[in-house]
Amino acid sequence: MGIPMKQEMDEVLAARHGRAVQEKLARGRVAIAGLGGLGSTIAIALARAGVGHLHLMDFDRVDLTNLNRQQYGIADLGLLKTEALRAHIQAINPYLHIKSHSLRITDEAIPELFAEDEIICEAFDRPEEKAMLVNGLFDYYPEKWLVGASGMAGYGSSNAIVTRQVASHYYLCGDGHTDLGTPGGLMAPRVGICAAHQANMVIRLLLDEPSVY
């Protein structure tokens, strides 16, 4: 079977989600900062939902330690995460608009990097990187929606992972306390649940539903 035409892909998504919903998602512009266990899973979920414009950012390459929780395979080892994830997304829907930057994000780069994005997903592992991005976006783009994560390590109860609105334009997903030192470390199930919370909140925002309830 050949690659479906764009119109066919659009019709299938509209049939599944409703045309009005799908048209809003197709116009969405979402940045994902960090393409590890959280970011790669968020990106795949949004691509499957038909979010039309994705901005992928990560400086790193895929290595063997990533495969326990990230959306990459053995064939991706050594590739830039931006390029590996682009290929996976294009295999799902080749008609999405994908922009990528293979770099380490700094505070000074935030104004230019995120200028065209309406929603930003913070998907870093390290607390200091999370804080840098959140504080920078508060300073430069207080009007943009920000969906971050805190606490998804280990194999504790899935039900402890929730989405909270912690500021007018800032949402935080996770259990709020587990970290890399938690027994089990970062494992695919809870990381994936947290990423799904982030992706779902992004979809709600694109559909003008800012409440977490």
TrEMBL record:
Ranges of residues in domain THIF-type NAD/FAD binding fold: 16-210
Entry keywords, A to Z? Nucleotidyltransferase, Transferase
Lineage, top-rank taxon, reads Bacteria
Example of a GO MF term: ubiquitin-like modifier activating enzyme activity
Q: Which InterPro entries does this entry report, sorted A to Z?
A: ThiF/MoeB/HesA, ThiF_fam2, ThiF_NAD_FAD-bd, Ubiquitin-activating_enz
Q: Which GO biological process categories is it annotated with? A: cyclic threonylcarbamoyladenosine biosynthetic process
Against NCBIfam families, the record matches this protein to: PRK08644.1, thiF_fam2
- For this entry, the protein name equals Sulfur carrier protein ThiS adenylyltransferase
